[in-house]
Design goal:
The complex is a heterodimer of chains A (about 280) and B (about 170). Chain A is α/β, with parallel strands linked by helices and about 280 residues long. Chain A has two domains: about 100 residues, no CATH class; about 130 residues, 60s Ribosomal Protein L30, Chain: A. Chain A is built from eight helices and ten strands. The longest helix of chain A is centred in the first third of the chain and has 20 residues. Chain A is globular and about 55 Å long. In chain A, about 50% of the residues are buried. Helices cover about 25% and strands about 30% of the residues of chain B. By secondary structure, chain B is of the alpha/beta class. The chains are: A alpha/beta (about 280), B alpha/beta (about 170). At the A-B interface, helix 3 of A face helix 5 of B.
Amino acid sequence: MRIIDTKEIEEKIYNMALHAGVNLTPSCKKALQEAEISENNAAAKFALKTLNQNAEIAKEMQMPVCQDTGMSVVILEIGQNVFLQGKPLKTAVNDAVKRAYADGYFRKSVCDPITRVNTTDNTPPVIHTEIVEGDNVKITYLPKGFGSENMSRLYMLKPAQGVNGIIDAIVETVKIAGSRPCPPVYVGVGIGGSFDTCAFLAKKALTRDVGTFNEREDIAEIEKLALKRINDLNVGCQGFHGNTTAIGVSCEWAYTHIAGLPVAINIQCHCVRCEKEII
Amino acid sequence: MKKITLPLSKEQIKDLHAGDSVLLSGTIYTARDCAHKRLVEVINKSQPLPFEIKNAFIYYAGPCPAKPNFASGSCGPTTSARMDSFAPILLDLGLGGMIGKGEMSEDVTLALKRNCAVYFSAIGGAGALYGNAIKSSVCVAFEDLLSEAVYKLEVENFPLIVATDCYGKSVY
């Protein structure tokens, strides 16, 4: 058994949140730089150039790369041989987020869904915990903006719709979203599971590096075909047309019921911010 | 690239065409979801608006707090479509135009045409770049709304694209 104080988890998440607010992931940065070179549409190229300048300014000035510093999503994969001591885990994660959003001068964007009253410290975050093998705690931190979250969709397809149905659902979601989610988007897709797990898989898919593919060949093929069709939509960067509508499609899968084929599409804008640490 | 300074005359607005890239300087006001709801409530009660609406430009944005010695925090545009129902009301009262991101409704296009106004798209996600181009920021209304309050901003060289021009032509 390994004893880990939740204070250690809090400190890790605090630093991850501060870093994530200001920095794009290296794989996202690379994808945007490549897109600026390959894009031919003048307005879209101008927008991509502005985005690449913005990433540099954010880093230099230590300013949030986007003012929507998001709702914090924290995924904790906790080894079954770990004993957590100290303050309650949920309190530790909340405190990490609260401190990072104050110290980083990040926007506080969390509110009551009915009264719309802001909680003023960006808590509570969304916390997913999973018990896994081993004696480590793996932390994934993803601040999620809502311009793109709003454009996400869940389909309960018929099994007969198969792979083509899955790809159609992905492409349709990006098409309907148009310019609103800040394209070029990163598309997270959950395939299978149940109504709830499917949506979580889509979120989890967004934590994978841009430019990587699922290790299952048939699923990697779905990612490639969907990306090709999305970039043929001519939505383009910021909706200004051109061939840069998405920088990637990332799918995660789970077993499902014989009667169903759930497909969830979680849209991420071009500001992919994601940190991973292991304690 | 064309450099423009607010306020814009109707002649200057007529000279802007969808797809043009511009660098905009001058005074603009932030307002997003909650602030718009309140502005319309003020209008419905026939009370005075917190700023002169005639020829003003509204920036659909909710900035991050400013660090010490900074005029503004990160401040990129938010999705304009959420303000679709409010924009025509303000345009009919003389609003010069809006800055946001993404498509707006047909009603907004008609209001832009009717009032010879213009809708600019800022580049969504470029919050640090826009925040850095803000030279001063003063809260002028609804302070309790925090980042959603109305801020009067002085901006220098905001990179924008003309999204919908006064002829109703759109870049989207």
